[in-house]
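Preliminary data (for renewal application), iron/sulfur cluster complex.
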Amino acid sequence: MSKKKKEQPEEIEVLSKAKKSDKVVPVKLTKDSRFHFRCHPKVRCFTACCSNVNIALPPYDLLRLRKRLGLAADEFIKQYGDIQVLDKTLFPVVTLRMRDDEKKSCPFVTPEGCTVYEDRPNICRYYPVGMATLRKLDAEGGKDEFYFMTREDHCKGFEEEKLWTIGEWRQDQGADLYDEMNRGWMEILIKKKSHGQGKPFPDIKNEMFFKMSFDSDYFRAFVFGSTFLEIYDIPAERIEKVRNDDTELLKLSYEWLRQAIFAEETLKFKEGVLEKRKAQADATMQKVYGDREKGSVGEID
Ligand code: SF4
Ligand code: SF4
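Predicted structure:
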């Protein structure tokens, strides 16, 4: 992998990978597309792709890495992360900070290879394949997922005989699981891009997005240490799963974010909660405005 964040045409959301745009083969591929490739410690270029790369860390990627390293989310971000604001959505996200050496090496690469291999980011799993989403500009506004190949001169893996379909490659690399675990979050980015038209959210909303996306301990404390479970109607069985399984917690955080950011009804309110909230809001309005007409704010002072 070698460097540079790539500018994409407006309608394309690249979901995996960040490479030099001039090395991307401009052909849309499917899961059945075939390619020859093998990467192993005896290739001449071993680890050549592990420096000067822009590796985004969606929530599941960050969770896997920080758990492996035994770090809290904020410790991990401080030690290994950079915060970047995405061009198209203006959301803050985490990327892996390269070392401050001549090659700008990945913090996890050694001459023997990747020291976090089992928990390596999805971008590293996909490589040399990339995945993108083409947002259709038709009335339904659907999307079309496809794959592409990155061929960098230094990568000798293409000279190997082993033949794969892209589907087989993804499965072999464990990318399927990462895609499944990050899909809900990616959909939030795509939705922000299509509905927000590049308009920034207030800082407080961006901070909420960042914290709830990347700090699962914070979200866990929010779920179990606030009135969350008094407000939302979550089946007891699911609550137990969320309590004991970080991946279930992540999925819940995506649903909650969609509700908080886009007011989607992803989580059901408990019976009476909305009525109670409305009554509280009415009481506050009554306290502030008394019997005056709502909206006659100018008369208050
Ligand atoms: S995480 Fe591992 S595979 Fe990915 S760039 Fe770093 S060393 Fe290479
Ligand atoms: S073969 Fe390609 S993927 Fe493997 S180490 Fe070499 S450059 Fe990286």
